[in-house]
Automatic annotation (TrEMBL):
The lineage of its organism: Eukaryota, Fungi, Dikarya, Ascomycota, Pezizomycotina. It holds the Pfam family Ribosomal_L14. SUPFAM superfamilies: Ribosomal protein L14 (SSF50193). Component of the mitochondrial ribosome (mitoribosome), a dedicated translation machinery responsible for the synthesis of mitochondrial genome-encoded proteins, including at least some of the essential transmembrane subunits of the mitochondrial respiratory chain. The mitoribosomes are attached to the mitochondrial inner membrane and translation products are cotranslationally integrated into the membrane. This is Large ribosomal subunit protein uL14m. GO terms for molecular function: large ribosomal subunit rRNA binding; structural constituent of ribosome. The keyword Ribosomal protein applies. InterPro entries: Ribosomal_uL14 (IPR000218), Ribosomal_uL14_bac-type (IPR005745), Ribosomal_uL14_CS (IPR019972), Ribosomal_uL14_sf (IPR036853). CDD domains: Ribosomal_uL14. Belongs to the universal ribosomal protein uL14 family.
């Protein structure tokens, strides 16, 4: 259950590490897996050098940027239609642009299967594991 001021891990390679929720974009307040939220980047990942050329990889987002994101993992237990209960170890999200396309090109970690029912197939295709 994600609400105002909740800190989330960003699991894509957009350059953000930790983001803070500032708005939930749905009528009912707490956001769950598959819901769109507005976040502010709190910590950004250090730019790493790429290969032997020594050129620094530019981050796509910076600290203080306001972006849209999709929640992909929540700590709160979530009961599915078949009766199984799923709970993740942290709150995590993926940054998206205004049209809904992911900003990053790679994801680290698992995402919830509930994204399939909420039409986030691009995020599911980038994720290594769907639970």
């Amino acid at each position: 259950m994600i609400q105002l001021k909740t800190l989330l891990n960003c699991i894509d390679n957009s350059g953000a590490s930790v983001v803070e929720c500032v708005n939930v974009l749905k009528k009912k307040r707490p956001a769950t897996i598959g819901d769109r939220i507005v976040v502010v980047v709190q910590k950004q990942r250090a730019a790493t050098s790429e290969g032997s050329s020594g050129t620094a990889l530019a981050n796509k987002v910076r600290r203080g940027d306001i972006r849209h994101a999709v929640v992909v993992r929540v700590k709160k237990e979530l009961q599915r239609a078949d009766g199984t209960v799923v709970r993740f170890g942290d709150n995590a999200c993926v940054l998206v642009n205004k049209s809904g396309d992911p900003i990053g090109t790679r994801m680290n970690g698992v995402v919830g299967q509930e994204l399939r029912g909420k039409q986030w197939s691009k995020i599911l295709s980038l994720a290594p594991i769907n639970v």
